[in-house]
Write a structure and sequence with these properties.
alpha/beta; Rossmann fold; seven-stranded mixed beta sheet; 7 strands; 21% strand; globular
Length: 184
Amino acid sequence: MGHVLVLGGARSGKTGFAERLTMRAGTRPAYLATAQALDDEMRERVRAHREQRGPEFATIEEPLRLSRAITEAARKHDAILVDCLTLWITNLIMAEENVAAAVDELLATLTETQGSRVILVSNEVGLGIVPDNAMARMFRDLVGSAHQRVAEICDDAYFVVAGLPMVLKGSPPVPEVMRRVHEA
């Protein structure tokens, strides 16, 4: 039972799908959130996400030190949902951290993590036009590179559109994972 990458656009249903995968993957799930609630709108999004996922998940908030948080969570949890890699990369950029080194560390951590399935959620950012500014292009390039590297070591990868997962790599999800359990 290896790790999983779940990609999709904004409001595509990727997090709900990943939550269902995580609940099926283990009996002691953790939700590792990378978001930082720096304004009212983001605080409301975080509140809504917590309410949606319910009490089954232990919530761990870590905006920067993702590898360390996964290692610590794997000691207590058999399934870990990471939501999301794009926010994590944004946080690293804003903190002027070395994104490539952090991705290297994440890959090493995922390779070493045994006994816990890690489901990683991320926004696909490469389907639109080429951004008009250097920072946005750098972000797109860093995220795209991270996605390729994470997908390479994951056993399963899905692309979610309109709440429907498409298999990029691995096995199709079981029918109960396909069904939505929460309304948007």
